[in-house]
Amino acid sequence: MPQSFDQLENEPLEAEQPVLRVGLAGFNESQCKNIFLSLANPLPNHPTWRISPFQLADAWLLCGDHSAPADNGHQDTLRVTPGLPHDRLLTLSLSDIDRPVAFSLPLASAEIEARLTFDVRSTPSLLTVLDAFEHWLQPLRAKFILGAQLMARESQLKRVVYHVSCNGKLLAVLDFAGWKIGLLPEATPEQLSGALWETRPSQAHAIPNHFVTNSVEQLRWIFAQHTVRNMLPKRYQRQVIYFANTPSVPQTWLQPAHLLLLRELLIRPGTLKELSDRTALAPEEVTRDLACLYFSGSLTTTPEKAATNASGRTEVSTPKWGRLPKAETTIFNSTLPPDTEMLLDHDTTAPAGLQRE
Fold first, then answer.
1. What is the pLDDT of residue 351?
2. Buried-most residue among 2, 14, 192, 304 (CB within 10 A)?
3. Tens digit of pLDDT for each residue in 209-224?
């Protein structure tokens, strides 16, 4: 069975596999149940897959019998009719899809060019698709492993340069003086799991041009978002939490729950329990999302460090994030949220220190 929240408390961070999320659309209740049961026993040394709200998922499973090109003259528009009573019609722009997708058989339309298909009644068929998803999501999984290693070594790290390599191949450059991390795009989770960390002189901080540049906050966020561990520091679970700064991660990473929590904190600070009550979010979900916001430099338990306005008082006005999506009512819901484009004027977050506050 998938490991539960806090079950890995005493296990090494580096040994953990990420929790990846899959969204479903067009399936009926029986088909959803079959998929849920197929995901219940993850393979050893593989990520755990969980069903999530559609727009929050890392990958999508679409019911082929309910999917067809839209009848609007646009060749790249796909319509998925609902399979559950309270679902709504889903319309997808194929050119905008940025995650792996698979269709169940049979396909209702011969016009669908499905690269990945599966039999919803067959667990081996679905696991084959998930294996392909995991290969496609290799960059995310690699960042999760590097983020886990970063968190595990946090108390020993200094503001210097580290090279991470495996069998003589450079996989990552961590420049804590410049607060930049470069990662080899094709680095695999397996390579990073067995990699060697070496302290290098400051002159070795250059990140190769073909590496992908990330920040410490981004790697921490990815780990906190995809772990089953409780990564929120203990004092944030007991004390009043204040809004400190806008999150120093890409705006597209902010999910509806993150925006909701930020809005509530801007209205007034609160404890974890109060925030759960005010947002109607489950305590476990609030804990995970607050951990992400904590590692992105957005939270503080020190009133003096809370965001203030010109008069020195705690700022309570809502930032220009636009409207907030409504919470999903079911994990099987295939309804996309309303437009969540954010209009932040600027990013005022300074990099947090290596040591937690």
1. 30
2. 192
3. 999 999 999 999 999 9
Binned average pLDDT, 10 residues per bin, the chain of 357 residues:
45 82 96 95 88 93 94 78 92 90 94 92 96 96 95 86 96 91 96 94 94 94 94 96 94 94 96 97 95 96 78 40 36 33 30 33
Counting Cα atoms < 13 Å in the Cβ hemisphere of 300 gives 17
Angle of the 256-267 helix axis to the 272-279 helix axis, nearest 10: 110
Residue type, 42: P
Q: For tokens 């998929």, name the residue.
A: 35
- How many whole angstroms separate alpha carbon 123 and alpha carbon 82? 23
* Residue 31 confidence (pLDDT): 97
Half-sphere exposure of 263 (CA within 13 A, CB side): 16
Beta bridge partners of 166: 169
Cβ atoms 241, 278 nearer than 8 A: no
Please state, in angstroms and rounded to a whole number, the distance separating the CA atoms of residues 263 and 343. 14
Calculate the CA dihedral of residues 69, 71, 76, 78 and round it to 10 degrees.
Answer: -40
Show the tokens assigned to 253.
């990473």
Kindly tell me the burial class for residue 158, based on how many C-beta atoms sit within 10 Å of its own C-beta (0-12, 13-18, 19 or more).
exposed
Write down the pTM of the prediction.
0.81
Tokens 């597209």 sit on residue: 252
Kindly state the tokens that stand for 247.
Answer: 């999150």
pLDDT at 263: 96
Comparing CA positions, the residue from 153, 69, 127 lying closest to residue 355 is 153
Is the peptide bond preceding residue 106 cis, with omega within 30 degrees of 0? Answer: yes
Q: Give the phi and the psi of residue 341 in degrees, each rounded to 5.
A: -60, 130
